[in-house]
Design a protein that fits this description.
This protein is α+β, with helices and mostly antiparallel strands and 558 residues long. It has five domains: 12-63, no CATH class; 67-138 and 291-457, outer membrane lipoprotein receptor (LolB), chain A; 151-287, no CATH class; 469-514, no CATH class; 518-548. 32% of the residues lie in helices and 25% in strands. The protein has helices at 43-61, 65-68, 157-166, 170-177, 181-188, 194-212, 230-238, 248-263, 287-290, 310-320, 322-325, 372-378, 388-395, 502-514, 519-557; strands spanning 12-13, 16-17, 32-35, 39-42, 71-86, 89-92, 97-105, 110-114, 120-126, 130-137, 293-300, 349-355, 363-370, 407-419, 422-435, 441-457, 469-474, 487-491. The strands form three sheets. Strands 5, 6, 7, 8, 9, 10, 11, 12, 13, 14, 15, 16, 17 and 18 form a 14-stranded mixed β-sheet that branches. Strands 1-2 form a two-stranded antiparallel sheet. The chain is globular. The N and C termini lie far apart (96 Å).
């Protein structure tokens, strides 16, 4: 702050004594200027200094963070081909999948739009603190519905595959024949390894959903000896009529689901949300209503590590991972997964990475290798959801042992381009491998990516859509002792809500109160309780003997 010295003032400034008496109206400020930082300097010189400082201040105040951080907009295309091993030959399990990708990348902020899903628009966004993931259904796909199986609904994959491969009954033999030869080979070679489990799980889930959405599987001989619920029996009689407001196709799909649940009660979960009180069928929402809904997942991610599906993980690694790769002690999440947050092996692999030598440092070559140490540590990573699959592996304490140093994934840039001083991949290739029960790595898929366009972009928008019905899954609210990984609520806001919001805290308290204790945290307490009881059981006889000895000695003394 500048100070003007008026008449009848005297002040020693930097060795200069100003006169005590001045003429009326005369101000020293007309000749000299006093500033606490600069001292006393001539007014003419101060005018130049002030002008320069004002210009710098104006530039600083009119430069927002979005202007300081430059953004690059990228359009690309990725192609993935899946294989299943058969001896030394390879067979295509799924058809080639080609999908578009759009990325907006800054130094510590990015947004990825990918077309990996066949019926939904999926977007990922990182704002430097949180990772956001939105899903909005954009196409009416009849095969997807409330009666199909999800990964979490296959409770005991090992036993289910065992019944299929052994063809333990007529239904298992029927289901087994619906799989292709490469798929049958994959299931026959199924082992407890996470890599094999992941691929087998996808094959089983896909096979079950083909059966559920296909013709009726009910036949008397096929279900001989299988106990069916009254609801299932009733539906077998109504499957080809219009009942309870549901269509013929919906009832047929629901019937197949119930038949499979009844036939494999210990291996497949029952979808209780399929019926209401009184046994009436839930009427699926029409596409006209579904398309106006959007689900947004908020996950704390201060480092920006990507835990999405394969369709987003690959472009993140190729175009957005530079800042994360520079972090000390970082572990790259494994890209080949259905959902990284549900994968117990998401952080289970070591890597050898070579990056481009520029300020961003995108990867030029990345290789992932198995690591027993990281596999054990991955199970305890707090970014993973505590679903049934993760909890089962945690409780088993990672009993599966795979040798270190086996190659699981390889990414390589085959052609590059330079934009604004940053190297970006123009073309890249990738190969991923499955580990057999014998410990051999066999190629299970490959892919390529190519850059379509690149240009300077603007700050990416967040994922909130107040014009739609927003359902928020907020993982910022996580309980340490209870199995609560987040809360679910509706909102019409356009920005991320604060975590100290009273309504959200109340929802979290209610959710935590109703949740069960995390079995992983409960197991050590039970073990310690057993140890204490065992120790007491050993000590009690010793204490009794000692007391009896003391009593006898006391009696003798008397």
């Amino acid at each position: 702050m500048s100070h003007i010295i008026h008449q009848k003032q005297s002040k020693a400034i930097s060795g200069l004594t100003l006169p005590r008496v001045m003429k009326p109206g005369f101000e020293i400020a007309t000749l000299f200027h006093y500033d606490p930082f600069w001292g006393v300097i001539p007014r003419a010189a101060m005018n130049s200094v002030q002008m320069i400082m004002l210009i710098l201040l104006w530039l600083f105040c009119n430069t927002s963070p979005s202007q300081a951080q430059r953004y690059t907009e990228i359009a690309a295309e990725v192609e993935i081909v899946y294989y299943a091993a058969k001896g030394t030959n390879e067979f295509v399990v799924d058809k080639d999948l080609t999908y578009p990708v759009k990325c907006v990348v800054g130094s510590n902020e990015w947004r990825i739009e990918e077309g990996f899903s066949i019926n939904a628009e999926t977007i990922y966004y990182f704002d430097g603190t949180n990772l956001y993931h939105s899903d909005q259904t954009t196409k009416d796909v009849p095969l997807m519905g409330p009666s199909t199986f999800s990964m979490n609904e296959i409770k005991d994959l090992r036993e289910f595959i065992s019944q299929l491969t052994g063809q333990s009954n007529a239904l298992s033999a029927f289901i087994w024949k619906t799989f292709s030869e490469p798929e049958q080979l994959l299931l026959k070679n199924y082992g407890p390894e996470a890599s094999t489990s992941r691929q087998a799980l996808l094959v089983v889930m896909g096979g079950l959903n083909k059966i559920v959405t296909g013709p009726s599987i009910y036949a008397g001989e096929r279900f001989k000896g299988i106990s069916l619920r009254p609801e299932t029996v009733n539906l077998t009689k109504e499957a080809f009529t219009i009942t309870n407001g549901g269509s013929r196709a919906a009832n047929l799909v629901r019937l197949n689901r119930l038949l499979l649940e009844d036939a494999y009660p210990l291996q497949l979960s029952r979808k209780t949300s399929m019926t209401m009180a009184g046994g009436r069928a839930l009427k699926p929402l029409p596409f006209s209503q579904i398309k106006s809904n959007i689900m947004i997942h908020i996950e704390p991610s201060p480092d920006g590590a990507m835990l999405g599906n394969m369709g987003a993980n690959i472009p993140w690694l190729a175009f957005c991972s530079g800042t994360y790769l520079k972090r000390s002690g970082r572990i790259i999440p494994f890209p080949v997964t259905v959902n990284g947050m549900d994968d117990p092996q998401a952080f289970a692999y070591s890597d050898k990475t070579t990056c481009f030598d520029d300020t961003f440092g995108l990867p030029k070559l990345v290789e992932f290798f198995t690591s027993q140490k990281l596999a054990a540590a991955s199970l305890q990573n707090e970014r993973l959801t505590r679903n049934q699959r993760v909890e089962q592996v945690r409780l088993e304490n990672n009993r599966t042992r795979i040798s270190d140093g086996i190659l699981r994934f390889r990414y390589e840039v085959t052609q590059e381009t330079n934009f604004l001083g940053i190297a970006y991949p123009k073309e890249f290739s990738l190969v991923f491998y499955t580990i057999s029960p014998q410990g051999d790595a066999k190629r299970s898929g490959m892919g390529t990516g190519r850059l379509i366009s690149i240009r300077e972009g603007v700050k990416p928008a967040n994922l909130f859509r107040p014009d739609l019905r927003q359902v928020i899954v907020d993982d910022r609210f996580r309980s340490q002792d209870k199995q609560v990984d987040g809360i679910i609520y509706r909102t019409n806001i356009s920005n991320v809500p604060v975590t100290n919001d009273a309504t959200l805290l109340r929802i979290f308290a209610q959710t935590e109160k109703q949740a069960r204790i995390d079995p992983v945290r409960l197991a050590p307490r039970i073990r310690w309780g057993i140890r204490i009881l065992f120790s007491l059981a050993l000590l009690c006889p010793i204490v009794i003997v000692l007391k009896m000895g003391l009593y006898k000695r006391a009696s003798k003394i008397r």
